[in-house]
Amino acid sequence: MIPHALRRILLPTVALLAVGAGVAYAAGEGAARSAILDGYAAQAKAEAPSFAGFSADRGRALYLGPHAGGKGDANACAACHTPNPAATGRHAKTGRAIEPMAVSANPRRFTDRAEVEKRFDRDCPNVLGRACTAAEKGDFITYLAGQ
């Protein structure tokens, strides 16, 4: 058993360390997401020299749709992910739960470059009927990082 005087010092210290670790972890996720966005910004600038930055408004429009050219009822990301990106989605064919797209509800979202590319490579043709541009990818992540 821990003496009362030691508990008064130890418990707040442990709590502060846990909060500090959480903040550091979140900062790492933010840095990983920023690095991905930096890569898309460089690509977007190479694709279109007039590129002036990402837009959460364009990202919102991309997320909510509707779009022509996609497959079946998947004419928007929101078709499976729900119009509220902080909500859990549901895969249209399998019924499998999909973690929220909003970074506020899923802080690890858009932090693994390979996973982000894999999803865009699969989902853009299904929703848009074509590959997403670097600017669209950055707009999409910018929108969802603010949700």
Automatic annotation (TrEMBL):
<dbReference type="InterPro" id="IPR036909">
    <property type="entry name" value="Cyt_c-like_dom_sf"/>
</dbReference>
<dbReference type="Pfam" id="PF09086">
    <property type="entry name" value="DUF1924"/>
</dbReference>
<dbReference type="InterPro" id="IPR009056">
    <property type="entry name" value="Cyt_c-like_dom"/>
</dbReference>
<keyword id="KW-0479">Metal-binding</keyword>
<keyword id="KW-0732">Signal</keyword>
<feature type="domain" description="Cytochrome c">
    <location>
        <begin position="54"/>
        <end position="147"/>
    </location>
</feature>
<dbReference type="InterPro" id="IPR015170">
    <property type="entry name" value="DUF1924_SHP"/>
</dbReference>
<feature type="signal peptide">
    <location>
        <begin position="1"/>
        <end position="26"/>
    </location>
</feature>
<keyword id="KW-0408">Iron</keyword>
<keyword id="KW-0349">Heme</keyword>
<protein>
    <submittedName>
        <fullName>Mono/diheme cytochrome c family protein</fullName>
    </submittedName>
</protein>
